[in-house]
Design brief:
Elements: H1 3-7, E1 13-15, H2 29-36, E2 41-44, H3 48-57, E3 60-63, H4 67-79, H5 81-98, H6 101-117
Parallel strand pairs: 1-2, 2-3
InterPro entries: Glyco_trans_1
Protein name: Glycosyl transferase family 1 domain-containing protein
GO molecular function, one term: glycosyltransferase activity
Length: about 120
């Protein structure tokens, strides 16, 4: 796919998702794509899965859903290259260890075996 090639040209990934009932529980695919490419993310904390992913991965900055907060998050990353690199690396490692298809398949297999062994 062409998408990773273009994502990797970025220094910072943005994921502003409107905190409404329609999106509050959505899974932020864009965040996973950024992290998989080693790009640190600025995302809003009101989206539960995004908040969990960014916190667990240490792959970005959580801000409130408003333009000023997103601008502050972007500036913080743009001004601190080492932090940006560390977050990008941490995010990529987290995706590989927690959300790759192989890792998900392994976890699912373990759950199936556990359920079957309890019968």
């Amino acid at each position: 796919s062409e998408i990773p090639k273009y994502i990797c040209l970025s220094d910072i990934g943005l994921s502003p998702i409107v905190p409404s009932d329609n999106y509050i529980m959505s899974s932020p695919t864009k965040v996973m794509e950024y992290l998989a490419c080693g790009i640190p993310v600025v995302g809003n904390r009101e989206i539960l899965d995004m908040r969990d992913i960014i916190c667990e991965s240490k792959g970005g900055i959580l801000v409130d859903f408003d333009a000023e907060s997103f601008a502050d998050g972007m500036k913080a990353l743009a001004r601190n290259n080492q932090m940006k690199l560390n977050m990008g690396e941490d995010g990529r490692k987290w995706v590989i260890n927690n959300r790759s298809y192989i890792e998900i398949a392994n976890k699912l297999e373990k759950k199936y075996y556990k359920i079957l062994s309890e019968r």
